[in-house]
Amino acid sequence: VQLQASGGGLVQAGGSLRLSCAASGNIFSINYMGWYRQAPGKQRELVAAERSSGSIDYADSVKGRFTITRDNAKNTLYLQMNSLKPEDTAVYFCTANVDTMTWATMEMLKDDYWGQGTQVTVSS
Fold first, then answer.
1. Sign of the CA dihedral with 12 first, then 16, 21, and 22 last
2. Could you give the C-alpha distances from 29 to 15, 71, 114, in angstroms and in order?
3. Is the distance from CB of 30 to CB of 75 less than 8 angstroms?
4. Residue range 48-66, pLDDT digits in tens
5. pLDDT band, very low/low/confident/very high, at 70 (cuts 50, 70, 90)
6. 3-class DSSP assignment, residue 96
7. How far apart, in whole angstroms, are the C-alpha atoms of residue 7 and residue 20?
8. Considering the chain, what is the average pLDDT of its residues?
9. First to last CA, the chain
C-alpha cells in the first residue's frame, strides 16, 4: 500500500491550500485516514482524521479553518486549509489504517501506512 501526498506549498497568511492523499495498492478496505503535521523541533500531531464510520476529529487549533473530506471511490483523502496562519507551517503527513487481503491464503491483515509528507509554509 502506498500513500501519495500532494498539494503543499508556500502561501501568505490568510491564504488557502488543498492537500490530497491518494492510497493505492492491495487495498481491501480503509478503516481510517488522517492528516498529521510536524513542525521543526516539535512532535508530530494530529490535524484531522476520518474513520470509516464517518466520524471526524479535528485538532482544536484548526477547527473552523480546515476541512477533511474523503473520496471513497478514489481512495483519496483531502484537507482543505483556509485562513492559514504562520503556526500552520509544518510537514503534513497522511496516514491510513488499511485492510489488505492475501487471496491465496484468505488472510486479512490490518496495518498503518504513512505517506512521504508535503511541506506547507505560511508566511506572515
1. negative
2. 34, 13, 16
3. yes
4. 999 888 899 999 999 999 9
5. very high
6. strand
7. 6
8. 95
9. 37
